[in-house]
Design brief:
Layout (H helix, E strand, L loop, with lengths): L1 H27 L4 H6 L2 H10 L4 H18 L6 H4 L8 E7 L5 E5 L9 H17 L8 E6 L11 H14 L4 E7 L5 H8 L5 H6 E4 L4 H8 L21 H25 L23
Parallel strand pairs: 2-3, 3-4, 4-5
Antiparallel strand pairs: 1-2
Helix pairs in contact: 1-3, 1-4, 3-4, 6-7
Protein name: CRAL-TRIO domain
Organism: Macleaya cordata (Five-seeded plume-poppy)
GO molecular function: phosphatidylinositol transfer activity
Length: 292
């Protein structure tokens, strides 16, 4: 009986969520073109979840994101536009997944090599879009690993840049982040964090985890998400981290060709998978020359 009750509650929740999605569709009205393709049921469900299933708040969030996408044009950014940003390997998609099969982005703020905020954001958005397009069909979220090796106040990103990063991630890619591990940040980072954390909504804040090598509990938490054999030694794992910019660039261009082919096919069939184009890259493919 208890099993039946739990099962029924789960079904009821699913039905209620579907009803909310339909209500949001009605509230948004008729959409066309890229806006219609973007607003899949899965996409609307993520926006609703991010706004605690409040129709009005979710509607505004979707409309704001559609406006942002129409001006920022994330799906039109190409690697050649942002390749300079990636020369040092300050941010890239890893060649391994977490234990749930989710895409992993590695960020190394100590490797910052540019000062132009606009192109830095385009680079980050490109990587987010790329990570999403390569998620397995049963996953909607990615994981971030942030390595603070070499980080200092001298190469720290301005607060304005950090705030824009948070804005893009939590307001235009809702429920896309599963977890972000900040690995071994220096003590001086705490002052910067005290400012940045006020930009985070409660849900995003809960996804940020600090990991210190000498703190057993934080290390064990991280290992519940990642296999030590895949995890680079910079994050306490056993794999060797080696970023090859030329190889990564080649792989990104390859990915774009595959995505363009899928885009053409899905436009023809009138179907967009999970709200984003799938690049049809096999699970485990080397999409960043990272751990080896």
């Amino acid at each position: 009986m208890m099993f039946w009750r739990r099962h029924s509650n789960k079904e009821n929740d699913s039905v209620q969520q579907d009803e909310k999605v339909n209500e949001l569709k009605v509230a948004l009205g008729t959409l066309s073109g890229s806006s219609e393709q973007y607003c899949t049921d899965a996409c609307l469900r993520r926006h609703l979840e991010a706004r605690n299933w409040d129709i009005d708040k979710a509607k505004k969030m979707v409309e704001d994101t559609l406006e942002w996408r129409s001006t920022f044009k994330p799906d039109e950014i190409r690697w050649s536009d942002v390749a300079t940003e990636g020369e040092t390997g300050k941010a890239y998609r890893a060649n391994f997944h977490d234990r749930h099969g989710r895409t992993v982005l590695i960020l190394r703020p100590g490797m910052q090599n540019t000062t132009g905020v606009e192109n830095q954001m385009r680079h980050l958005v490109y990587l987010i879009e790329n990570a999403i397009s390569n998620l397995p069909d049963d996953q909607e979220q990615m994981a971030w690993l942030i390595d603070f090796t070499g980080w200092s106040l001298n190469n720290n990103v301005p607060v304005k840049t950090a705030r824009e990063t948070v804005n893009i991630l939590q307001n235009h890619y809702p429920e896309r982040l599963a977890v972000a591990f900040l690995y071994n940040p220096p003590r001086i980072f705490e002052a910067f964090w005290m400012i940045v954390k006020y930009f985070l909504d409660p849900k995003t804040f809960q996804k940020v985890k600090f990991v210190y090598p000498k703190n057993k509990d934080s290390v064990e938490l991280m290992r519940t998400y990642f296999d030590e054999e895949n995890l680079p030694n910079e994050f306490g794992g056993r794999a060797k981290l080696q970023y090859d910019h030329e190889e990564f660039s080649r792989l990104m261009v390859q990915d774009e060709v595959k995505a363009d082919r899928v885009r053409g096919s899905e436009k023809k069939n009138g179907h967009i998978n999970n709200g984003y184009l799938k690049a049809e890259v096999a699970q485990g493919s080397v999409l960043a020359p990272a751990a080896s």
